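STRUCTURE REQUEST FORM
Protein name: CobW
Source organism: Hyphomicrobium nitrativorans NL23
Requested output: C-alpha cells
Priority: standard
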Amino acid sequence: MTVVAKVPCSIVTGFLGAGKTTLVRNILQNGAGRRLAVIVNEFGDVGIDGEILKGCGIESCNEESIVELSNGCICCTVADDFVPALEGLLALDNPPEHILIETSGLALPKPLVQAFNWPAIASRVTVDGVIAVVDGAAVAAGRFADDPDALAAQRAEDTSLDHDNPLEEVFEDQLLCADLIVLNKADLMTADEREKVAAEIKAAVPRAVKVVETTGGQLDPKVLLGLGAAAETDLAARPSHHDNEAEHDHDDFDTFILDIPSLDAPEGLLERIRTAADAHDILRIKGFAEINGKPMRLLIQGVGSRLQHQFDRPWHPEEPRQGRLVVIGQKGLDRDAIAQAIGTV
Ligand SMILES: Nc1nc2c(ncn2[C@@H]2O[C@H](COP(=O)(O)OP(=O)(O)OP(=O)(O)O)[C@@H](O)[C@H]2O)c(=O)[nH]1
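Status: completed
Returned output:
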C-alpha cells in the first residue's frame, strides 16, 4: 500500500490591512522550488487581494493556482466554498505541493483549521501552520485594546476570554490560533513600541509561540513554511472567543463598494479618502481608480487613515475601466456620508 503524503497548507490570518497579501506575495516571489497555490478570501464582494496577486507579474502566479473566495468570510463558508476550493486544487493535473490560504481580515482561523478534519479532505491535506500577521503600528496605537494595561490586569484576575470589543475579539482569536506570529510594519514603530507590542502579544497568547518581526512581510519562506504543526490535531490548544457558538456572524462589521469616477489626477481623491477615513473611523479601504490618460490602473490601499497608492498593472482591454473602492468598518458606517465625502459616480 502506498501512503500518499498530505499536502501541507499554511493559513495566513491577521486583522484587516495587517499585511497578509504582502506576505503571501513575497512567498510567491521567493518560494521557488515548490509548486504553490493560493486560496484568497475577502470580506467584501470584490476580490481586490486576488487581483493584487494576479497583477504582480510573478511567473508562478497562474490563474488556476490562485483561487478567490469573495463570498463572505471563509470561516462561515467552509462547506460551500473552502472545502470545494481545496478539492479543486488537489484535482489539478499538476497539483500544488504547498497551499497558502489567506483569510479575510475578519475571519476567525479556528473554523478553518477544524475543516481540515472533514472526511472529504482529512486524508489529503494538513495545516502546516497558522501564521498570524500583526499590524504592529495599529497595536501600538491601541486599536485592539481600549486600555491594554487595564486589560492585562483584568486578565490576571479573570481567565475567561470574553469582552465586548469586536476588533479585539477577532484580533485575539487570530493570535490564539497561531503557530507563528509575524509582527509586521516594524518600519512604523519605534524601538520602544516594538518591545511593548511584542510583550502585549506574548501576554495575549498562553502558549509559547514564536514572534518574528519584519517590514513588508519580508521573511524567508523557510521561516514561514514547513512548520509541521498539524494544527487540525491540536485544536484544544487554540482557544477562541467563539468556541461555544454554533455559527459565527460578522454583524459587528459593515462593508460596501463605491464606484469612483475617472480622474485627471489622484491627489484630490487620496486627500478625500484620508479625511473620510478619519472622520468615519474606516478600518480598511482598498480598490482601483482610473486616471485619465494613464494605461495603468491605480491601486489604492488604506489602513485607518494611512494610505498608499501605486499603478499596479495596465487595464486589460476587456475589463471596464471603472474605479471602485471597497470600504470596511465597524457596524454603523454611514455609507451616504462616506460616498459624498469621497465623491462617487
Ligand atoms: N509601512 C508599511 N506598510 C505595509 C507593510 N506591510 C504592508 N504594508 C501596507 O499595508 C497595506 C495593507 O497590506 P496588505 O498586504 O494588503 O494587508 P492585508 O492584511 O492583506 O489586508 P486585508 O486583506 O484587506 O485584510 C498595503 O498598503 C501595504 O503596502 C509594512 O511592513 N510597512
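Reviewer notes: The chain has two domains: 7-237, 253-342. Residues 40 and 68 are 5 Å apart (CA to CA).
Form closed.
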